[in-house]
Amino acid sequence: MVLHLETKSTSGHSAAESHRQDSVQLLIFNFLLILTILTIFLFKHRRVRFLHETGGSMFYGLIMGLILRYTIPPSDPENSIVHNCGDMTSSPGFLLLNITDQVYEYTYKREVAKHNMNNRQGSEILQKVTFDSEIFFNVLLPPIIFYAGYSLKKRQFFRNLGTILTYAFMGTAISCIAIGGIMYGFVLAMIELGQLGKMDFYFTDCLFFGALISATDPVTVLAIFHELDVDPQLYTLLFGESVLNDAVAIVLTYSISIYSPKDNPHMFDATAFFTSVGNFAWIFAGSFAMGSAFGVVTALLTKFTKLCEFPMLETGIFFLLSWSAFLSAEASGLTGIVAVLFCGITQAHYTYNNLSDEAKMRTKQLFEFMNFMAENFIFCYMGVALFTYQNHIFNALFIFGAFLAIFVGRACNIYPLTFLLNLRRKKRIPWNFQHMMMFSGLRGAIAFALAIRDTNSKPKQMMFTTTLMIVFFTVWVFGGGTTQMLTWLHIRVDVNPDDEINLESLRVSGDGRQVINPTEAESAWMFRLWYNFDHKYLKPVLTHAGPPLTTTLPPWCGPIARLLTSPKAQDHRNEDDADYIINNDELSIYYEDKAASASCYEETPGKDIPAEQQLADKDNLCEGESQPRLGLTSSQTPNVPPS
Length: 643
Description:
The structure is a single chain. By secondary structure, the protein is mostly helical. Helix content is 66%, strand content 3%. It has helices spanning 11-46, 53-71, 124-128, 133-150, 154-159, 161-192, 203-213, 219-228, 232-257, 270-304, 311-331, 336-354, 357-388, 396-422, 431-439, 445-452, 458-480, 482-488, 497-505, 520-523, 525-542, 549-552, 558-564, 567-571, 581-584, 587-602, 611-616, 618-622, and strands at residues 2-3, 94-99, 102-107, 506-508, 514-516. Helix 1 (11-46) packs across helix 13 (357-388), helix 4 (133-150) packs antiparallel against helix 13 and helix 7 runs antiparallel to helix 9 (232-257).
């Protein structure tokens, strides 16, 4: 095919202009981030909670996108001219054009809806600020997900592990099916109204949308929870669900995308269905194993070498191996998000204990900073993309159906599963917690990244536009109403998590003494088995903590035990296994502190002291600290465990 068009030899000028536009693009987002940081400072200084920093980032991005969209003139009117190619019947990935005896190579980007042709200004700046979706998955999302695992508060997380897994796996699947079913009903209605063609939208497309929009990201709510010290159980359930839910939603979207019945996309195909289910299990398990493996390798490397003498090198190898977990999973056809999540959890549980004090501080601050910048950049970009993305498809009926579907899907996730969980839980999840979890189902970075990753077809472009609308609404309305909702639901605030755990782990006996109170976590045999195995074998192998392997392995394993046991383990034999992971929140602290607390109370006369006073002064008796800061009203004070 030969096209005869007038061309200009402006390669040098085009390269310089492209470089200038790239600089303008980076300057725009740099300015937005500066403005966002200053606004965050103002909000924190004035204690403003009606709008979170992510909402402010989106607002500034929205204003910038509006300015770019309607003030920058078209740079080249020819970019919006449609050239007909009558002899082509498909859209190739690469296209070679012979233009006046010069051959040029072009790359396929996406399908363009006809109604968007008149709105395309052809400005290269608008195209520049529309990032490649791979930048989100390979550069921006990994530090966000890794930090979620690295900063995980493991004591509360593992105590509620069964509940969190139920919400994350079963809840996400239920939400996906409910949203997909409702959206398919709206799609059929749109077909009847002539808004869609019969071959435009399939049921699998609706399920795909249900999977991506089921990825919750309550960053706004969790930030307010953290500032107000909301009840730690509610915080843990919501945070744990959102972390694992993101991983499940990502794998689920991929599994649905590869579901391809041979005969008719409208028909159910058992072979294709079970193939997708098998792929889901394999991808999730493989990604989990790969992420954990990189964490183990990093732990062994930092344990058996003297990298701790060079904190800069130690931090560098920690960072690169953590990122390698993501890239290796993606290169292997697995999911890097799942891999880097469990890599972060493994690094926090094992590798962190081997780092020097300087490297501990550096890694914590490095990933906290990267998480902060990446998250705010994504929310800024969401605002910009609402006006600069040139292939939006706004359909009022589809958007209305999506809002209805996400509320129904969230309700089908939270309330039925909580009812079933409360049948077995010793500490039931109250109704006000359930309502707050229902309210906190915000959508954010993960749903946006999944939607923008594939915008090649009109259905996917409609999903992307609708996802943007949902993210804007949930972040601004639900995020802004979090504080008021906490008040309406009478949820406790100003709760010290450590005090709460100690209150739950102690009860007052008949003679006035405080004794250990078995919890749900301790009664779980699987949890006890894992903790014992981890404490006796994994911790001593991968870290300098825990009992020496020479005391836990059989005598015939003596040579291996002496080889793998760190000399420092002998020094820690009589010390608490207290790993200083972020905020001193380590799984083993809970169990070993209980023994210390019990022995402390045995030495303390308690018969003449009221039970309430004993509970309030437990830190004074054991550690010499001041009374815990609960900041509760009389109606909010937790009940003393019964004798």
